[in-house]
C-alpha cells in the first residue's frame, strides 16, 4: 500500500526544502522515499526527483503559448495535469506498491483552498490506494503579528476543509522566529490555538475598525477546534524526527510492519541487518505507535531551543559537532595507522 504526503503552503514557506530534508532523513533511516515535483515553476529542485511535472508541462511554455500570467498559467498547468492524470499514474506505478511519496505542490494558495484540480487529483490518488496526509507549511514569522496569525489560522482551516485529508499544519522555519522580535505569548499559545481572546488587545490596536470582526473570526476558529500546529526547523534532526512521527501516525504508516519482519510497525529493515541493531531507527519507530514523545516533541522544548536559550543551544551544538568531527578524524587516523602497519609487515 503506497503512502504519501501532500506538501502544500504559500510560496517560500519551505516546501521543497522540507521535501529534501525528509528525503535525506528517511534515506539515512533506510526507509523508502521518493519525491514527486508537481510545481511546474520549480526551477531549482534540491532533491532527486522521482517524477517531475516539467516532463509533462512547464509554466513558462504555458505562459508563452497561451499568453497567460503566472497565476493563470499555474491553474492551467494543474488542470492539464488533472486531464493527463494517466501520465502521473503510470509513473507512480513504476515506484512500486510500497512507495512512500512526497508530493511537492506549487505555492499558489488557491490550489489548496478553492481550485478543484488538485483536490480531484488527490481524490484519484486516494482511490488508487494511496494513504495520504496533507502537510501544510506556514512560515513561523506569521505568529509574531496578531493579524497575520489570524490569517494563517484561516488559511490553515480553509485548506483543511478543502483538501479533506488527515491534515498537519506546521510552523516552518521556527529557527528564525527570534529574528522577528519578541512574541507576545509563549510558542505553545500559538501552536495549540487555545484561548484566542488574549489576542484582543493586539488585534484592536492593529485594526481598530475591524476589531469586532477579528474577534468573531477568532471565536469561530476556536469553536471548531480544528487548527493546531507542529513546528519545524529543517536542519534540526530532533525537529524533523518529531514531525516524521506525527505524520506517520496521521498516514497510518506506523501500523505497517515491514514484510517478513518482527521489527516494530513503521520500521524497515536494511538488507539482512536487523533494524534493532540500528538504535536511532529503532528508537524512532518503536515509540511511533505509542504516545508521541522524544526530543523536540514538546513545544516548550522548541521554545527553549529557538527562542529562550538559542545562543546556549547553538554553542552546545557546535561543541557536539566539533567533538563528533574529532572522533571521526581520530577513528580515520587509527584505521590509517593499522593499514600502514599491516602494509609494512
Ligand atoms: N532557516 C530556515 N530556512 C528555511 C527552512 N526551510 C526553508 N528555508 C528557506 O526558505 C526559503 C524558501 O524555501 P523553499 O523550500 O524554496 O520554499 P517553497 O517555495 O515553499 O518550496 C529557502 O531559502 C530555504 O532555504 C528552515 O527550516 N529554516
Ligand atoms: Mg518549492
UniProtKB/TrEMBL annotation:
Keywords: GTP-binding, Hydrolase, Nucleotide-binding. GO terms for cellular component: cytoplasm. It holds the Pfam family ATP_bind_1. One of its GO terms (molecular function) is GTPase activity. Residues 321-345 are annotated as: Disordered. Belongs to the GPN-loop GTPase family. PANTHER family: GPN-LOOP GTPASE 2 (PTHR21231:SF3), XPA-BINDING PROTEIN 1-RELATED (PTHR21231). This is GPN-loop GTPase 2. It comes from Pleurotus eryngii (Boletus of the steppes). The lineage of its organism: Eukaryota, Fungi, Dikarya, Basidiomycota, Agaricomycotina.
